[in-house]
Amino acid sequence: MSLEGINLKRVRRTWEPTTKSWDDRALKTPWEDMDPPLDNATVFALKNVFFFSHATPIQYLSIKSFSSNRQSAIIEAPTGSGKTLGFLIPLMERMVQSAREYVVKHERPPLNRDVVGIILSPSRTLADQTFIVAKQLAARYPFHIQFLLCDGVAEKAEGVMRRLLNGSRGAGSFIVTTPHDLKSLLPLFQTTELDAFSKDTADLSQQTGDTAHGKRTERAEKVHLRATEGAHFLLIVDEADLTLHSTTTREIIAETLQLVEGPSPDVGKAERAPRRKVSKGTKKSDVPPLAVDFAFVGATVSTSPTVHQYAEELSAKCSTQLAVVSDSRDSDYLLQLENRYLACDAQSFLSVLVQLINTHASKKHFNLFQQCSGASLCSATVCTASRGGASCSFCEVYLFHVRRHVRGHAHGSV
């Protein structure tokens, strides 16, 4: 078998394993008893899509501390405790509340293409997993709130921008990405030439209620990083104890926040809130605060001096209330969590891998590979050979085993 004869592509898993590693009897708070109360669509998704009847301790604390506007948080909990939903639920609650307020004020749903938040993950594998969970959660709401993955492989920056420009309008879009891929995406938000991405026209009059005065065809508006009328722009940094130690990542975040704009007066109008600009002669007290709330999430973020210092500096610039949320280490729930790993000899790697996947198909698997000549094994368990490079016999055998033995299983992020 040769790599040239195989149509290689990155396979993305469209579901998350539903097998839980804890007993719900160790949890005390049903979703219906949350404070603040959750939207009905949120409760429905958690119980009927994710099959969770109760909130984990970190989810309860993060929802309580991060669901309102002008609130930011440092969220710490061990792996497997539900941190992903812990920041996704407050994020969705903010957007739904903002959309409902918009409907009451304008008597129509919000219709825009702006990016209202960014979720940063240290790796493309983790970004992919977060994207899957977020997309499943967002699909159950009455408002169109979409999540887009920008991983530089399956979804490149140019493709993400085209989807933003040509896609359906709604309450806003969130981008799930890595710092490296975000860096390649930022210049596209500063582009003044819209035709570089789209030559389609947008009939804004149909969506803004102006059809009574005759149709008016305009070119699709530029996409912005923008806060909404009722919710600040949201920045989530997952595994922040690892991500924020990089100076490059902090510089990318600073560049991103400089592009964030205030709420637009109305969709389809030419005027928009000015971008925050700071000149050299401007006094610190005269600088307008950023319309940004943030959450730094990780297993050791509360004990990281770097994260704490950066969070305090950022909260001062954003005029947001910062809370530190940490799970109790001696709770009955945490004592049930188990994270296991397996090390094996290189000669027995393939047989052990296939056995693990077939035996524990409903559980999450993380495989760490080293690069080999002419190819590298990526997190999607597909060998992407270098163009013009020599093929690798190990990767050929590996591809054969994956296709033959784990067809139909979750091999998008094995």
TrEMBL record:
Known EC number: 3.6.4.13
SMART domains the UniProt entry points to: DEXDc
Residues annotated as domain Helicase ATP-binding: 64-228
Enzyme class per UniProt: hydrolase
A GO term for molecular function: RNA helicase activity
Keyword field: ATP-binding, Helicase, Hydrolase, Nucleotide-binding, RNA-binding
Keyword Hydrolase: yes
Catalytic reaction list: ATP + H2O = ADP + phosphate + H(+)
InterPro entries reported for this sequence: DEAD/DEAH_box_helicase_dom, Helicase_ATP-bd, P-loop_NTPase
Region (Disordered): 263-284
Function: RNA helicase.
Domain text: The Q motif is unique to and characteristic of the DEAD box family of RNA helicases and controls ATP binding and hydrolysis.
Family from the record: Belongs to the DEAD box helicase family.
Protein name: ATP-dependent RNA helicase
Naturally occurring in which organism (per UniProt): Strigomonas culicis
